[in-house]
Amino acid sequence: MRLLFKQRFFSWFDSYDIYDENEKTIFTVEGKLSWGHCLHIHDGLGDHIGTVQEKVFALLPQFRLYEREDYIGCIRKELTFLRPKFTLDYADWSVDGNLLEWDYTITSASRGTIATVSKEVFRLTDTYVMDIHDPADALRVLMVVLAIDAEKCSRGY
Length: 157
Fold this sequence. Notes:
The chain has 157 residues and is mainly beta. The protein is built from 1 helix and 12 strands; from the N terminus they run ββββββββββββα. It has a 12-stranded antiparallel beta barrel with strand order 1-2-3-4-5-6-7-8-9-10-11-12. The protein is globular and about 40 Å long. The mean pLDDT is 88.
């Protein structure tokens, strides 16, 4: 499954549309006013299905993830040199980025590659292509990408 993650050009808060290969809107994401990033994810019908909430007072960036209203876990940035790395405390997933922080691979110790994520660089807004191996993982992969993008935004990237 391939999804295109595209930030809206005119918006006061973080707002994104996520399309499938046929340019059908699968998810929308709306930023909410809060301390740190707070992103609400909606399905194609407009129903709230998830939230990515930045933990403000943490040594390294952390984001709490919720499916509907249920807390599912946290994604944390690891202290690394040159290449970004994130771990999730609710699954055996890890996220490894490249030197320029444009490409990421989400892997599982038990399942192998979950998804690959690539940033399209010559765009006016943040745009990512997500290649997801199992469509059932789409929401959680999106949450990971939103957390990574929010962390980069906090650093001014």
